[in-house]
Design a protein that fits this description.
It is built from 19 helices and 15 strands. By secondary structure, it is of the alpha/beta class. Helix 10 packs across helix 11. The longest helix is centred in the N-terminal third of the chain and has 18 residues.
Length: 497
């Protein structure tokens, strides 16, 4: 089964998403019918599309003739019957199950029996939407991301009744439209909205525990390669929207503790602190304000010490060795952990346990995702924490050793797994569970997270660069600390360790 690029497409819903889908289809050569129940909305969307296309021409990104041809292919219609010849229908209306069900039941009496019906839903079960249709096999999810013309990812979501040939036809069509499609099974959140939950949830948990300020948490995760920290990203998305998606995934998974919503975010929503749209969220946005910058990074020389031992091997250990150049030190590559012991005190990479649980003169530091001598930006933010029983001398010296290695040390509370390590571990765990449950494959998970939410790497790419046993140990330590179901290790990940 194929959907030719000359086949008519009906897009229902002339909002931001629908208009974007119409633009992509028209630029790919399809005649496009655009329908909206709001009077004049489809025509207005077409006019805006014309302006968008002309803007692309002005910027040299589109030929004038191509822009005119694409706009000419878009035809606003006042009734569904005017689009009866459509071979593909893409629905982009309100996120309401009954509204979508009603629409597709109506469409069955309008379009041909072999026409493909696609829903752009981001959270509603495709199986549930298809319930009650005469031919449920032709309904498939075609989840685009905003802004549609720019975002490459399309989740092709199959419900229980979706015909494999239909899903494959939509997959090939999305690729013909210049998108990167990934197959997904219809489960709560599909791929992106499911796997992404820990990126917000771990930061919200740290805020609940008052482990650090939002600016510090954001800086640490930006240093790990994310374009935006979770706090600024939630401010951009809108806390009402982000909280609603979390609640939806939580409820749809029968209150699985892994997806439990945050009291911190609920209070913000209740107080109207919705982020950029309200002028204030984690940050204030009035008069050009926004995410506050950290204090400037100041390099430091490694402190004086009588006995220094460098533990571990790999890029991080090599970076620490660079900081030790010019002085005498021993190296224990087989110790099983990475870090320094300095006159009996310890500075080590987190393994999920708190510093306090490991002794008196112990400091732990976060996972640097760019640990090599030339990796990451100079002065990249890196969280560290100290034992509750640390001596004043080691409390002062520990961050100096990190600064000597080129890290912008940020002190946080002694929370298990710190910031980046626990976040990346949970993203890996969630992706492993999605693959274990047949929601997607590993390549699909990596592509979805990189293209759908601009992650610097996919969860399985992180896993390949880290170590499955280390990830499992960290999650087990988190589970032991919190004593709940949230940090349970996925069977799919456990098998790798």
């Amino acid at each position: 089964m194929t959907i030719p690029t000359s086949a008519p497409v009906l897009v229902i819903g002339a909002g931001i998403m629908g208009a974007g889908i119409a633009q992509v289809a028209a630029q790919s050569g399809h005649p496009v019918f655009l329908f909206d129940t709001r009077e004049g909305a489809a025509a207005t969307a077409r006019d805006k599309l014309g302006a968008t296309l002309q803007s692309l021409v002005a910027k040299g990104r589109l030929e004038a003739a191509a822009a005119e041809a694409a706009l000419a292919r878009v035809q606003p219609v006042g009734t569904l019957a005017e689009a009866a010849s459509a071979a593909l229908v893409v629905e982009a209306i309100v996120e309401n199950l009954e509204a979508k069900r009603g629409l597709f039941r109506e469409l069955e009496g309008v379009v041909a029996q072999d026409a493909v019906l696609a829903t752009n839903t981001s959270s509603i079960s495709v199986t549930a939407i298809a319930n009650g249709l005469k031919h449920p096999g032709r309904l498939v999810g075609m989840h685009f991301f905003n802004p549609v013309p720019l975002m490459k990812l399309v989740e092709v979501v199959s419900g229980l009744a979706t015909d494999c040939a239909v899903a494959d036809a939509v997959f090939k069509l999305a690729r013909a439209w210049g998108k990167v499609p990934v197959h997904a099974r219809s489960t709560p959140g599909f791929i992106v909205n499911r796997i992404a939950r820990p990126y917000y949830a771990e930061t919200l948990q740290l805020l609940l525990e008052r482990a650090a300020e939002p600016a510090v948490l954001d800086a640490c995760l930006r240093a790990a390669g994310f374009r935006m920290g979770p706090c600024e990203l939630m401010d951009l998305i809108g806390h009402d929207t982000n909280f609603s998606v979390t609640c939806s995934v939580y409820e749809a998974n029968f209150q699985d503790k892994r997806y439990v919503p945050s009291l911190v975010q609920r209070e913000m929503v209740d107080g109207g602190l919705l982020g950029r749209k309200s002028g204030q969220g984690f940050y204030r946005y009035a008069e050009g304000a926004g995410v506050p910058a950290l204090t400037a990074f100041e390099p430091a020389a490694a402190p004086a010490a009588q006995e220094v031992v460098l533990h571990g091997q790999g890029p991080l250990a090599d970076r620490l060795a660079t900081a030790l150049s010019g002085r005498s030190f021993e190296r224990d590559a087989g110790s099983g952990w990475t870090g320094l012991s300095v006159d009996g005190a310890v500075l080590r990479l987190t393994d999920g346990r708190t510093a306090t649980a490991q002794g008196a003169d112990v400091a732990v530091f976060d996972l640097p995702l760019h640990p090599g001598p030339g990796g990451g930006e100079p002065g990249m933010a890196l969280a560290y924490a100290v034992s509750d029983r640390i001596s004043p001398a080691w409390a002062e010296a520990a961050p100096l050793w990190l600064r000597a290695a080129g890290f912008h040390a940020q002190k946080v509370a002694d929370a298990p797994g710190l910031v980046v390590a626990r976040t990346i571990a949970m993203l890996i765990n969630e992706a492993s569970d999605a693959v274990h449950q047949g929601v997607c494959d590993e390549a699909g998970a990596d592509a979805a997270m990189k293209l759908g939410v601009n992650y610097p790497a996919g969860p399985f790419e992180w896993l390949a660069r880290w170590d499955a046993a280390a990830v499992i140990d960290l999650l087990d330590a988190l589970d032991a600390s919190y004593r709940g179901e949230r940090y349970r290790v996925s069977p799919g990940l456990r098998r790798r360790g």
